Write a sequence for this structure.
């Protein structure tokens, strides 16, 4: 079964990463967290340390979806990783699904040309990066444009995850998870 992967770098936004993983697993989506560090341990922007499921070297190209939490310097750490950038570029070139939240659309996706010609959103203050990457910035919580999902920040983690569930499964699955968490 093809998997979905959430990339974790030191400084990641905990809510965006962990809420997304939690809700995807509730929906029965096969998702793993991926450390880009030399170890499985990854420390979030607010000091929460987690053990990722796998190392970047063990993450295959051609996933069901790659997901990027934001947070700083987490998003910059992802953008500075050549292997992550190669995987994202290949995924996009092959029409694969990508999701990014908070600073990640502007800091990671835009410089790679992934959102060029797309509608996208990001954390307030990062709009110039999105526009410089050729995207049309939308002041919305979550934007779905073709194979790319973007969201604006921590408070949008749940709608972001539900949009991912809808993209990977269907609306009924997203509705079931939303109902299960009393949304």
């Amino acid at each position: 079964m093809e998997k979905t992967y959430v990339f974790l770098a030191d400084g990641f936004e905990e809510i965006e990463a962990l809420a997304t993983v939690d809700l995807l697993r509730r929906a029965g989506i096969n998702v793993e967290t991926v450390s880009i560090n030399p170890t499985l341990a990854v420390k979030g922007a607010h000091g929460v340390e987690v053990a990722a499921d796998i190392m970047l070297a063990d993450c295959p190209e051609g996933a069901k979806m790659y997901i990027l939490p934001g947070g700083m310097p987490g998003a910059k750490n992802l953008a500075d990783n050549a292997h992550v950038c190669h995987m994202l570029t290949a995924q996009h070139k092959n029409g694969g699904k990508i999701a990014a939240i908070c600073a990640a659309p502007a800091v990671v996706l835009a410089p790679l040309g992934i959102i060029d010609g797309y509608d996208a959103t990001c954390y307030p203050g990062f709009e110039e990066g999105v526009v410089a990457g050729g995207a049309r910035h939308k002041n919305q919580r979550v934007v779905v444009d073709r194979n790319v999902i973007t969201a604006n920040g921590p408070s949008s983690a749940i709608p972001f995850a539900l949009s991912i569930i809808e993209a990977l499964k269907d609306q009924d699955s997203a509705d079931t998870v939303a109902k299960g968490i009393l949304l």
